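Exercise 3.2. Students should predict the tertiary structure of the chain below and write it as structure tokens, then compare their answer with the key that follows.

Predict this chain's 3D structure.
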Amino acid sequence: MSMESAVAFYECVEKDAALREKLRKLGSKEKVEPYVKNELGYDFTEEEMRKVVFERNPEMTEEDLKAVVGGVLLPEPRPKPSDPPLYYP
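Answer key:
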């Protein structure tokens, strides 16, 4: 697990609309975690991802983050609070 992996994953999701959609379709942390780790090869903790998210989006509050994606922010374009949640490992 590493910050480097969390940063690389964030940047990948930021650039890849198809990946964002795939993660949304998986729909739960229990399905997303093994996909990200085993299929995509990224290994990081939730805390590492949260740190990346907050460093890149300093205007976000913890409450904003939870309202938008159930705990971890998607890179741009950001979903609306009414969109289904997306879970990162």
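Discussion points: The radius of gyration is 12 Å. The mean pLDDT is 76.
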